[in-house]
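so the lab meeting is tmrw and i was supposed to have these ready like two days ago... anyway. pasting both below. for each one the top line is the aa sequence and the line under it is the structure tokens. i havent really looked at them closely yet so no promises
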Amino acid sequence: MPTPDDVDAFLTTVLIGDDPTLDAALRAQHDAGLPAIEVAPVNAKFLHLLTRIAGARRVLEVGTLGGYSTIWFARAVGAGGVVVTIEAEPVNAELARANLERAGVSERVEIRVGRGADVLPGLDGGEPFDLVFIDADKESNTVYLDWAARLGRPGTVVVLDNVVRAGEVADADTPDTKVQGARRGVEMLGTDPRFDATALQTLDRKGWDGIALAIVVDAAAP
């Protein structure tokens, strides 16, 4: 009986194939000892296609890690597009810069180093983002969602990653702060009038998880 890993491998082979640039980015990340918490290739391709479907030219990413998903976003926005990505760890940011340079997309990407909650206010007042991807510390999900609305516009696409967490998100009494952060993020998307949202469970090489997908419907609502 095929396993979820078998299915993930099949889908990755058929729908993505070999990409030496992306493979090199992952290899550099893993060789540097960074945790293997980047999005799976099929999920990265989903984000890439979603960016293109939305016609996004300005993407905000909260959580760079080694730049794997950043490369996918940079390819999706195309020449003239912009990806602003925020990374809390300077060592990770340096590795991401090298990966982006190798991928030939560094001119489309601006890496801002620091905690998301500290960096995001500095983006206020600029041109709105068309798509926001949140994949950082889960405890700050509501902070990041608030800024996604503030820095977006009606129609901005927002993706909140890792919201299912092997089903633990359904446990209101869990002591796990990451799960509680995921719960608060989903609850905010369900109650905040600035968003219209849904969520999907996923099963891939990283296990059972999911994403919340939203659009900003009223960026000015309190």
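ok protien two:
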Amino acid sequence: MSYIQADKQQPVSKYHCVKDRNSKPSLNHPCFNNKSHNKFGRIHLPVSYDCNIQCRFCVRSRNDYETRPGVTRKILSPIQSLGIIDRALRLCPEITVVGIAGPGDTLANDAALDTFFLIHQKYPQLIKCLSTNGLNLPDYIDRLHNAGVQTITVTINAVDPEIISKIVRHILWDKKKISGVAMGKILIGRQLTGVKLAAQLGMTIKVNTVLIPGINDSHIEEIAFTAKELGVSIYNIIPLIPQGEFKNTNPPDCNDLKKAKALATQYIDVFEHCKHCRADACGIPGVNDFSSQLYQEKMETFSHG
């Protein structure tokens, strides 16, 4: 599937996008519904350490002090995750969502899929949620659906290969590292195909975009429009955390975020309450965090390498 390339000489109205079409956010999901962010809880299970792409802003870490994506105290096995959920529900009965968001990519191996199958059997009432870069999403989508996954977040930082090549250093594809525009075409094509397949299965989809001044800030409209056309329900614009190759890049300020969200809102509902959650977060976003209590008991660590 090719990306949608906007014609900069044409007015915005050329998109002909009906904002309310395909709007189906999960009502009890605090990361998909602006009205639920301070009412319902979620737990992130850190079972996915491997990653199949290298974003230039990403630094994965194991620690107990940073509050950002890509960070966890430890890596769990799928079986260990069930015990963690038991404890989490005792600490925070308001939890409605079990999510897997790293600290690597959830579809770089089968750990997340295996975990969701176990969770679906024991906790069918909980919303199962997956976050991914989307490179392997087309290959996993049917199995994820069968494992009870109802909501999916795909990080799409550009729908133009030239732009994504400035954000992603390389992908691991067909046992090779691929970079540049060729990498961008593969990654974007796989992301958009995966999103379309998820929408066809009736899943609720959110797209995340890391806003990077000078690189993709003028590209937000295209991403928002493309996402909506494919059946995405809600869009989340996340300010860059300066680290990795972007450690010297100034993050977007409040005006930058406001402008980006205003552009996106023309086409799609925009989530307003993202908290840059860790891969082992637990509790009601913005209200409480039980992750330190959750992992107080000594556990055997598990790593995929």
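from a quick look at the 2nd one: Residues 1-25, 298-305 have pLDDT under 50 and may be disordered. The two ends are 33 Å apart (CA to CA). will dig more after coffe
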